[in-house]
What we know:
By secondary structure, the protein is mostly helical.
Amino acid sequence: MSDSWVPNSASGQDPGRRRRSWAELLAGRVKREKYNPERAQKLKESAVRLLRSHQDLNALLLEVEGPLCKKLSLSKVIDCDSSEAYANHSSSFIGSALQDQASRLGIPVGILSAGVVASSVGQICTAPAETSHPVLLTVEQRKKLSSLLEFAQYLLAHSMFSRLSFCQELWKIQSSLLLEAVWHLHVQGIVSLQELLESHPDMHAVGSWLFRNLCCLCEQMEASCQHADVARAMLSDFVQMFVLRGFQKNSDLRRTVEPEKMPQVAVDVLQRMLIFALDALAAGVQEESSTHKIVRCWFGVFSGHTLGSVISTDPLKRFFSHTLTQILTHSPVLKASDAVQMQREWSFARTHPLLTALYRRLLVMLSAEELVGHLQEVLETQEVHWQRVLSFVSALVVCFPEAQQLLEDWVARLMAQAFESCQLDSMVTAFLVVRQAALEGPSAFLSYADWFKASFGSTRGYHGCSKKALVFLFTFLSDLVPFESPRYLQVHILHPPLVPSKYRSLLTDYISLAKTRLADLKVSIENMGLYEDLSSAGDITEPHSQALQDVEKAIMVFEHTGKIPVTVMEASIFRRPYYVSHFLPALLTPRVLPKVPDSRVAFIESLKRADKIPPSLYSTYCQACSAAEEKPEDAALGVRAEPSSAEEPLGQLRAALGELRASMTDPSQRDVISAQVAVISERLRAVLGHNEDDSSVEISKIQLSINTPRLEPREHMAVDLLLTSFCQNLMAASSVAPPERQGPWAALFVRTMCGRVLPAVLTRLCQLLRHQGPSLSAPHVLGLAALAVHLGESRSALPEVDVGPPAPDAGLPVPALFDSLLTCRTRDSLFFCLKFCTAAISYSLCKFSSQSRDTLCSCLSPGLIKKFQFLMFRLFSEARQPLSEEDVASLSWRPLHLPSADWQRAALSLWTHRTFRELLKEEDVHLTYQDWLHLELEIQPEADALSDTERQDFHQWAIHEHFLPESSASGGCDGDLQAACTILVNALMDFHQSSRSYDHSENSDLVFGGRTGNEDIISRLQEMVADLELQQDLSVPLGHTPSQGHFLFEIFRRRLQALTSGWSVAASLQRQRELLMYKRILLRLPSSVLCGSSFQAEQPITARCEQFFHLVNSEMRNFCSHGGALTQDITAHFFRGLLNACLRSRDPSLMVDFILAKCQTKCPLILTSALVWWPSLEPVLLCRWRRHCQSPLPRELQKLQEGRQFASDFLSPEAASLAPNPDWLSAAALHFAIQQVREENIRKQLKKLDCEREELLVFLFFFSLMGLLSSHLTSNSTRDLPKAFHVCAAILECLEKRKISWLALFQLTESDLRLGRLLLRVAPDQHTRLLPFAFYSLLSYFHEDAAIREEAFLHVAVDMYLKLVQLFVAGDTSTVSPPAGRSLELQGQAGQPCGTDNKSSSFSAAVNTSVPEKELLTRGRGNVKMPTLGHVGDMRIDSCLGHVPAWLAIQLDYFCQSPSPVV
């Protein structure tokens, strides 16, 4: 204890007297005063405060140290190498000693313990250090500190330790305190960083101390020290605490000091570090210097890895916003004029890589809207550092595609404000922002020239509101002239603002000033190139070099459009000096002309025909080319020189790629990789003959032939070099470091492929992956998979790809393209697809492990991940078992790049990887039941990796054990078997409607794509439908029938509604193909699907019957029938189902009669179909009926027999039998029989029609008309057409002879219960639409007198004529319909004479709605637009229109009271 305290405590005593100790003094006071507990407590508190504030605890301990204290030393406890064992000095022993010592001193044991531990920490930290400014402990120091902290934890647990006193004691040894020791105190829970920092009395001093130590920490981290993990954890914890405490709005921290200290310290330290980094970059920090290492390390803390554990994003966003503000506003030394002159040097590519890396990390947390809004706020309220502001604008448009529109909107507001109140600041900001964004190219922002034209090149420009606005604009532009780059002056001159004529002087003065400035800069406005990029602000190109580039681009545009580019046409008029002096000489360079004219020859000839080449210049060019052809030696030399000239740039490219590969394994060369990639890009352009500026020929969509990809030899060699180099580089880099630590080389390399060479790269990838995939080696698979990932990373900057069939019609993004290139059909393609998917997904998981799941999903196509799941389920039985937590595996990229990679082991490792399992929870990438069906349908069983038995077992597992019980949210069926069948049927239909099912087959019968691969899936459908039938039968009470129809018909109905309606060829073909597939599916399923399982008396017509009848009447009648009958297979299927269902009823014969009787009105086409196919149908029905019943066939089936017999007897030479009822059925049977015999055999037999009933003749005439139209529509019309005409003529003659009315057949409606409803349900709509054609085709057979006797004849003739005209013009009769009640009027034969006035007005009204004659003639005459059941080449409707008999024309003329004939 200090001697100065003794006189104060013993004043007036003899100096030679022995000094009393502090304990004796206190004991004496106790003796002299009466004991008071309250006073004693207050005295202890005062003593404690005194000790804490003024006493040297170490001296105190020395003074009061007794014999026991001398034996007790913490240095032996923390000394791990001491010969005295720690067991001799246990924590409890030391703790009890401290308690005794504290009791003798009369102070709390916590204060004493805190001082002892703090003193020991200081002793540890003052040990010899390895560096001059250490922040990290040595291994020995770390061990000692660990032992000490264990003892401190014991003291804390037993309430023998004061945190506050400990913090204050630590700051007394601040000069020797190491940062790692402070961090260990925080981690071990002795004292938190927050408590320690807040206990310091001087916030500025603690901020300086932390800043120095953090700088040293960053420097040691970048020096690859052996304790890098500890240093990284320390930095992360410090930064996280600073962010949370410094940028938290409502901080509820339990502190014993002022609540504002901690946020002040946190913000101060973060700001010090940022300012240090910005000042270092501004001063030009040298690579690998200590300052450079500190800046690089500190900027790394803004990554998600360091700040990943910050739970709330609000403090992080506030921190990033504050950081961005500091970046933009720190040290604003540059003026706006400096920015105008120097901003070309501040593009994204030229900005320091450390600063661009910081920008990218800031952009991750903040959205584009927030960033633009923040930038706007900073520019409006504070002075800014223009270099960092504009470089940030470049980073914004490069990294955020959506920022372009946001910046355009902001600039538009700035311009509006500027011209509204002549605000110069807004004008300057707008121009600088636009120019800076335009520096990044057209893919990031529109060019400055386009923006300037859009802003000032029209009457809607900002300057058009007043003269004041014009003066403001030109004053501003004039003030910019001394600082402007020549490029911008050229833009202003070539695309000047639109100015009213009375203010033209303002424009001319500015142009004169700008031209003068260009002359001072020695830049000629006349020698500008046609395709020169006026927004690049780059160096001016020599006229000759620019002319060569203009020629190449003009030829390229000419190849794409087939026309002379507009730019060339304008230059030939408005920029003739450059056009004649530079462009044409570059274009007309003499050469040996190719035998087959190329694009250059075609372009020159087009210019010559347009008089854009002077004759003398063209003549000179032709003579020079002829002279070149006359020198065979030189020509031969030229031919031999071409490969060498082409080989030279190819060799340079190969050398540049080799240099890059050598840098992959050398860590010291990592920084030169970006420069080497730039060299590769330049060499690649030289090989392919591309120019540096491709902005004028931007690729909007890539056309790729996926089935027959082709490349030019030069492109093929260059792309092969690129792809081979990428694969080799990946192998080299992976041998040194995992993907996440390989740096940006792959992204930079891929960026060179994203320009003009991208179509060639994708074409070569198509050749390799789709057509040569199984033959690729493991390094190739790994390299191409990684390439696919990086192309997906740049998907926003890449155009879409149009690959044609079998892919969708719409363009595909590049990641989805790889999904189309990987097929799963054969064993080889299955295993190759597995390899590629495994490599791609594994690489992406390793490469982007620290990034968000959205980033991972954007790099890979969802289809690729789904294919991997499909292949795992299909090829590995282990993948079909549910995973447990123990099965979750780790993933390593290293085993994959070994030559002997075990792909199956790698795939299983990926399958059980935790991150991949979490990825599968995303809805977009989870394999659904529908996805599985589409992939399984593509399998070719004859080349499958699974045997037939294995494939069947796999199908059973996938459907019944995996997808059926799975929830619909996860892509399953919720246990609903009907839903599973519905998805399966839709998948079948979608597959066969797509072009994928025709890749390997030319089968026109559409039998499931012509492949047997679908048979297994159809078998599964059969099993599922059978199970469903059993379930429904169990749910229906005995003796009843299900009230609901079959779900298949509902599927068909929905799909048909979704198809395009109409009679166009495309719509008809699509509908016909869809219906044929429906029919094939129905035929493969039980016949009970059509009719139901049984009929009951109370509900004879089941819902399924009703659905099938509706399908036949509405769809199959038009597309699946021919000649008034369905096909044999569906007809026989229905009758089998009918007998099966009826045989289960109580009276089978009665039920069959009832159902077939209903068919006469509900679906007569089924009965006519049975008549056509009766010879093959009858034995089947008889066999089934007699097996179950001894009675004869039901009456309605006998009628079909009798109808066929009647037709047979009628055509025999013997006497015909009477026609059975109903008449229409007998007529149909006779019509079908007539079609089966030769023409010469039926002429005599048709005379027997005179004896038949009238109704039968009318029906027979209608069926004959349908036969006549069918003969026109079928391919064998030359053989059947004359016969069909003769049959119709004979029947018509019989009808007229017997005076039987037949006109009602041409006016059929659904409301006509006698004829219309029946016949319209038998004939296809296509045939009924063509009845006008049939009517006028038979005009020559109409008897004049008989026709005139029919009072309704003229009505029908006019109506048929108008419909025929409509058919001729538009191929449709829907716009011409008979007047209301016409069919009823025609049915009555007796009545009053015709009223010509009414009919004349009716006909005139109809004529007025038709197409005018002039328009009719201009449209031309040709074939009718017919559906797709056959060719209509012989159906000439114009022949009918042009040959109306004279007698009919006279009657029509009289009928209409017209002075001239109708035709």
